[in-house]
Amino acid sequence: MNVERLNGLSLEALYALAEKMGLDLPAGLERVFVVEAVLEAFDEDNEERRASGDAAIHIEEKKFSGSELDEIDASLDAAPCIVGRYNETVIHCVPRDHEWAFAFWDVRDDEQDLLKAEGGFSGFFLRVVKNPSHDGKGSSGFDIPVEDDDNHWYIHLPEQDTVYRLDLCARFGAKFRPIAHSHAFRTPRSVLTTADDGLEPKQAALAGLSGIDHLMIQNLPDRHPSRILGGFDD
Questions:
Q1: pLDDT tens, position by position, 149-171
Q2: Percent of all residues in the chain with a pLDDT value above 90, rounded to a whole number
Q3: 28-52 burial by CB neighbour count: b if 16+ within 10 A, else e?
Q4: How far apart are CA 17 and CA 43, in angstroms?
Q5: Of all residues in the chain, what percent carry a pLDDT higher than 70?
Q6: Are the C-beta atoms of residues 150 and 200 closer than 8 Å to each other?
Q7: pLDDT: is 95 or 227 the higher one?
Q8: Is 138 helix (H, G, I), strand (E, B) or coil?
């Protein structure tokens, strides 16, 4: 039993293992403390067995040696964990910062089979929709081709403080069909706003009282949205 193997278990599995070892751990502990408690119990049991000189007592009192240890190893392999997918057609997107977001998606097996059986099917792609409206359309956007076995991407979003939505689409020749939509989300600002940067009068007054005018905030430079890397020019 080692730290690496324990760290590969879910928190639920760690609690189940601790209970099997006779530990009564309080609920809500962080993973590191549960792992530490399990390792300490295992080490203490080894010390007890080494200190015992009576073979009969040794056999009677041992908890986690020999075949019992094999059972625990087997329980680690069979322990519950987070599944890789839930077999549903869905797409989600989580902004990481003002330029990047993490997208993950899946297509239900039977739906994927039906799509591939249709004539002209040529794969999936992600459509990034900027400023989506209630009718599903946006002011602009771009497409990202993905492979059938892809299920997550980091996506570069060119504008800060802007609302985006991701559509998972199936392509059929020159046509396409959206099969899932993410929730609409807003990219955060990369820098603080200045007191007079598009604020209403009352908001600007409050910002002025905060002393924000004296922070010497540097505005972002204009740059082409297709540029992926880079920040302020020297």
A1: 899 999 999 898 899 999 999 99
A2: 33
A3: ebeeeebbebbeebbeebeeebeee
A4: 15
A5: 67
A6: no
A7: 95
A8: coil
Q: Using DSSP, state whether 28 is helix, strand or coil.
A: coil
Give tens-digit pLDDT for 64-102: 444 444 555 555 555 555 666 789 999 999 998 888 999
Q: How far apart are CA 170 and CA 178, in angstroms?
A: 6
- List Cβ neighbours of 204 (8 Å cut-off, separation of 6 or more): 195, 196
Of 224, 89, 88, 94, which is closest to residue 164 (Cα–Cα)? Answer: 94
Tell me the C-alpha distance between 214 and 194, whole Å: 10
Rounded distance between C-alpha atoms, residue 157 and residue 48, angstroms:
59
Tell me the C-alpha distance between 153 and 156, whole Å. Answer: 10
Q: Map residue 215 onto helix, strand or coil.
A: helix
Q: Strand, helix or coil at 230?
A: coil
Give the tokens for residue 227: 């540029």
Per-residue tokens: 96: 């990481």
pTM greater than 0.90 (yes/no): no
What per-residue confidence (pLDDT) applies to 19?
A: 83
CA 131 to chain centre: 24
Amino acid at 120: G
Token pair of 128, please? 């990034």
Q: Is the dihedral of CA 6, 11, 16, 20 positive or negative?
A: positive
CA 229-231-234 angle, to 5 degrees, is 125
